[in-house]
Each structure stands twice: as C-alpha cells, then as structure tokens.
C-alpha cells in the first residue's frame, strides 16, 4: 500500500487512556524495539491502521529504537487524532493518514461526546432549569441551562474482547446513537423515574415526565444499558452518518418512547406521535478562529457558520 502519512515529530498521545493504549492497536499489542521508519511503514502497510505513534526508548533521539503503536481505524474514524496530540520534549512522532484525517480538522461542527450545548424544541423554547427540585425538564425563553452529552453505546463493534468502552471527549456521535444528557458538570441526568419508586398518586400523574434526577453517569456508560438513555434520530441522514449542530433531531427515551414538549415541560409518549417532534442543539463548545493574525476564542454558536473554526484554543497556531 502506498499511502501518504503526515509525520509530526515531538508530539505524543496519552497511551494510558482509550483510544491510545496498546489494546487499541490493530493487533491488540504494541511492537517493541522498532525504528521510527519501520513503525511508519508498518502502519502504512496495514489496511486497518490510519494513525501510528512511535516513542523512543532513548529520550530525545529520533534515530533510536522505540515502541510502536499502530492504531485501529475502526476506533479512530469517529474522531480526529489532531484533537488528542500533546507536545513532547522527548523522541516521539505521530503518523496520520491525511486522506482520512484532514488538517486542520474539517468536522468541527459535528456533535461530539462530552460537548456542552443548549437544547431547543421545535417551537423555539430552550431548556431553562438547573435543579432537581423543579417538577421536570422545563423549556422557556430564558438564557438556557448548559447540558453535557455523553455517548453511551458505541456505534461500532468494540475490539479485543474488551466488554465495555467509554468514548472519551472528541468522539463524534452517529445518527441513532444512545446518549445521556446531564446538567453541565453534575451527575444530574435527564431521565424517566422508574414507576416502582413513585407513590400511587405519582404513578398516575407523573410518570409521563422526563425529569432531572441524580444518576451514576459512568456506571450507565460502562454497562451499555440503553433502556434509560435517549436515542437521537435525524430522518434527513443515514444511520452511519454523524449528527451536526442544527440538525432536526427526534429524541426517543430508551429508543421507543418519543419525547415532546407540552406546556413548557418535556414528556414521553407511549404511542407513536402523529407528527414528529423535533429538537435542535445549540453548541456551547469553546472554539477559536483567526481574525487576521490574531487567534480569537468564542463559543461555537456565536461564530458565523461560514467562518473557519477550530476545536482548540490556539487555532492550531495557523493565524
């Protein structure tokens, strides 16, 4: 295979976290005592590899032997490795297939796991409460409550017999994915309270509510149980396409019960809605863009859609 890879010297990945451990490589293990050139060629010649990482055994020397990571594209195709690169003062290099991962990244306006956003309904209301003392998830015309999104169930088959996978920050969310929505920086999640926790009166009148409720986000992400999660569906896109800010999205609780807003409160329906109820996400992600030679930071939703933006704070030093 003759594939052109971009080599970035003195950059590194954090190999203690997914998706950059040895288990995330094509073969499920790293190659020891290999040269940088051999590591590059190994990834170039492996169809499943589109990102490689080489770390020298001898501190700052680029011409020594080291450890080679040939990462599996089934994992990294849902993100862009440039978001994960960190500076290194030691002998290390990153190899990236330019056809698969553009630089600078172009897929900036997709919805990523761990993004923060405002949730709007089809009538222009915005989620505007931040307390579990409220009766439910309330929509109003206020400034909005920041919500964080977590991908729960990966849309690809996980590898190497690892039972669970938690997509880290910067993983794009595919159409039909299951997610958790949490009030930003809390463990208060958007959920339906199980009927066996309610009184008979509550059961009669309140089980239609979607509420903010304390939940163990990490446990739910690790379990892969989607029964208490929200499925995101955009009918304008195929199942394997990624969701973007501005998409008209149908939300289904547990993948079955459609969500809708009535009298400024979020409900779920046990029946199929006659007309789909759409929601949109308004990004509150921090981005940067070039204003001449100056790098400016702002929220994504505040920047004109025609402006080239970056999901890093330094504009990738391109200004």
Please trace the helix and strand order, writing H or E for each element.
Answer: EEEHEEHEEEEEEEEHEHEEEEEEE
Global geometry? elongated
Secondary-structure arrangement, i.e. CATH architecture of the largest domain: Trefoil
Strand residue content: 25-35%
**Count of domain modules:** 3
Q: Helix amount, in percent? A: under 10%
End-to-end gap: 35 Å
CATH topology descriptor of the largest domain = Trefoil (Acidic Fibroblast Growth Factor, subunit A)
State the gist of this model.
By secondary structure, the chain is mainly β. It is built from four helices and 21 strands.
Q: Could you walk me through the main structural features you see in this protein, from its secondary elements to its overall organization?
A:
The protein has 319 residues and is mostly beta strands. It has three domains: 5-97, 3-Layer(bba) Sandwich (Hepatocyte Growth Factor); 116-283, Trefoil (Acidic Fibroblast Growth Factor, subunit A) (Trefoil), CATH 2.80.10.50; 286-317, no CATH class. An eight-stranded antiparallel β-sheet has the order 18-17-16-15-12-11-8-19. Strands 1-7-4-5-3 form a five-stranded antiparallel β-sheet. It is elongated. Helix content is 8%, strand content 32%. It has four helices and 21 strands.
């Amino acid at each position: 295979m003759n594939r052109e890879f971009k080599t970035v010297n003195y950059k590194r990945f954090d190999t203690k976290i997914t998706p950059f451990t040895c288990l995330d490589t094509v073969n499920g293990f790293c190659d020891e005592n290999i040269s940088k050139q051999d590591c590059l060629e190994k990834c170039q010649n492996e169809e499943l590899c589109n990102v490689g990482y080489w770390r020298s055994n001898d501190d700052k020397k680029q011409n020594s032997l080291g450890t080679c990571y040939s990462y599996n594209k089934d994992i990294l195709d849902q993100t862009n490795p440039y978001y994960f690169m960190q500076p290194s003062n030691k002998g290390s290099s990153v190899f990236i297939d330019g056809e698969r991962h553009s630089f600078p990244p172009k897929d900036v306006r997709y919805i990523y796991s761990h993004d923060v956003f405002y949730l709007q309904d089809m009538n222009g209301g915005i989620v505007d409460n931040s307390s579990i003392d409220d009766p439910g998830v309330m929509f109003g015309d206020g400034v909005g409550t920041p919500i964080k999104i977590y991908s729960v169930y990966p849309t690809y088959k996980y590898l190497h017999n690892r039972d669970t996978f938690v997509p880290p920050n910067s993983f794009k969310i595919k159409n039909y994915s299951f997610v958790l929505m949490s009030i930003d920086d809390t463990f208060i999640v958007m959920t339906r309270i199980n009927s066996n926790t309610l009184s008979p009166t509550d059961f009669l009148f309140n089980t239609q509510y979607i509420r903010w409720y304390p939940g163990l986000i990490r446990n739910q992400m690790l379990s892969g149980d989607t029964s208490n999660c929200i499925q995101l569906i955009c009918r304008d896109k195929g199942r394997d396409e990624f969701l973007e800010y501005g998409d008209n999205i149908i939300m289904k609780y547990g993948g079955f019960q459609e969500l809708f807003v009535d009298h400024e409160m979020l409900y779920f329906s046990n029946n199929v809605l006659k007309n789909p109820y759409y929601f949109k996400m308004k990004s509150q992600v921090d981005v940067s863009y070039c204003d001449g030679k100056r790098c400016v930071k702002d929220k994504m939703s505040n920047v004109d859609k025609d402006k080239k933006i970056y999901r890093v704070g330094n504009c990738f030093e391109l200004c």
